[in-house]
Write a structure and sequence with these properties.
Elements (H helix, E strand, L loop, with lengths): L1 E6 L5 H10 L3 E7 L3 H11 L3 E3 L2 H8 L3 E4 L6 H11 L3 E4 L6 H14 L3 E4 L6 H11 L6 E9 L4 H4 L10 H17 L2 E9 L10 E8 L4 E7 L13 E6 L2 E5 L4 E6 L2 E6 L4 H4 L5 H20 L7 H19 L11
Parallel strand pairs: 1-2, 1-4, 2-3, 4-5, 5-6, 7-10
Antiparallel strand pairs: 7-11, 8-9, 9-10, 11-12, 12-13, 13-14
Helix pairs in contact: 1-10, 3-4, 4-5, 5-11, 8-11
Bound molecules: nicotinamide-adenine-dinucleotide (NAD).
Nicotinamide-adenine-dinucleotide binds next to loops.
Length: 341
């Protein structure tokens, strides 16, 4: 059994703790939060007796096998550095850091300390996204040449995460980051990115709409578009919709996790929804399932000495896409080479 400690008992940590409680050979034995009420409520909810208001003290006393950092981005640099110094492997929430330079430094700090570092980049672990990747890997639609990864919603994310309304950066850093990571997961590295951003909701500080065009080294063109200002007849939050055109046919991941593959003149349909009875309630089942799977992957990597799929080093490339998007938007949509950042 691997004993973990978790820092940050907020909105999303509840999903992480639920997944840790269901894990086979790992669990959380100590919790830390500066907010006493949140700490107490979370400790009671998950039956975790050992609680701290100071992360350094928790790591020193508990000497955990790993630490799960579930705080918001501003605290990631000090907390990951603390874990590296204590020699404790880290899984840290996205966005990993606010700047690419800080992220590169943290990756180097952990490398020098010999500490495994993974970023909790869970969208690529969603069952429907894995199903899309399998279709591509099996060559069913031939060589892909064009794709769209879309997330358009009017769900009130500000109710559960009020800080999202306050930052000068919003949808690319918070949600687009997941979709950009999925684009890398499906089609590989990106050599050019052009973006436009908009703010539709006047009550928030950052952008709530972003449209990005990515050129991948492998030749695919991907449109990544996201919005938290799009009220539709049916609210599909938190579903990502994917369209891919390939040399032999097309793939569509539509509403309600319906996957339609049309290749060589024949069409097949499949529902690739996560099991609602196991991971529900809807609409959170897709998220909950991906959190469980990414945490299982982290533990398997710790046990097997493997590099996690979304290691800190890997995540630098996703963060470079985020930076490239903001830079391109600032330059009126001019293309940016993420590798040059
Ligand atoms: P939140 O504000 O609800 O919770 C963060 C908690 O961390 C707070 O309770 C705060 O008191 C605590 N905290 C902050 N700094 C601390 C420190 N130094 N020591 C101890 N406690 C500290 O935030 P949230 O909405 O749960 O988001 C947390 C992170 O999870 C963010 O980075 C967010 O982007 C990410 N997130 C990811 C997903 C996903 O699908 N992967 C979804 C939602 C949020």
């Amino acid at each position: 059994m691997l004993n973990g400690a978790l820092i940050g008992c907020g909105f999303f940590a509840q999903n992480q703790l639920r997944a840790w409680a269901e894990a086979g050979d790992a669990g959380i034995v100590a919790l830390c939060d500066r907010d006493a009420a949140r700490l107490a409520a979370t400790a009671a909810r998950f039956g975790i007796a050992r609680t701290y208001d100071d992360a350094a003290e928790m790591l020193a006393r508990e000497r955990p096998d790993f630490v799960d950092i579930a705080t918001t981005v501003a605290s990631h640099v000090p907390l990951v550095t603390l874990a590296a110094r204590a020699g404790v492997p880290v899984i840290c929430q996205k966005p990993f850091t606010e700047t690419l330079a800080e992220a590169a430094e943290l990756v180097e700090t952990c490398r020098r300390a010999g500490v495994k570092l993974m970023v909790h980049e869970n969208f690529r672990w969603q069952a429907p996204i894995r199903a899309v990747r399998r279709v591509l890997d099996e060559g069913e639609i031939g060589q892909p040449f064009w794709a769209r990864i879309a997330f358009r919603s009017a769900y009130d994310v500000y109710a559960g995460q009020p800080y999202l309304a306050e930052g000068s950066r919003f949808i690319i850093q918070d949600l687009g980051i997941h979709l950009l990571d999925v684009a890398r997961f499906l089609f590989g590295e990106v050599t050019t990115l052009a973006a436009r951003t908009q703010r539709v909701n006047p009550r928030i500080a950052g952008e709530d709409v972003a449209t990005m065009m990515l050129g991948h080294a492998a030749g695919v063109t991907t449109v990544v578009d996201c919005s938290y200002a799009s009220a539709q007849e049916r609210e599909l939050f938190p579903q990502s919709l994917i369209e891919i055109d390939g040399a032999r046919g097309t793939l569509r991941l539509g509403a309600d996790y319906e996957l339609v593959v049309h290749a060589d003149g024949a069409t097949r349909r499949e529902t690739v929804a996560p099991d609602e009875a196991r991971w529900g309630p809807a609409p959170w089942h897709g998220i909950q399932h991906s959190v469980f799977d990414i945490q299982e992957h982290f533990i398997a990597c710790l046990r097997g000495g493997r590099e996690p799929e979304t290691s800190g080093a890997d995540n630098l490339r996703t963060l470079a896409l985020v930076e490239a998007a903001y830079l391109s938007a600032q330059r009126g949509g001019a293309p940016v080479d993420p590798a040059a950042l």
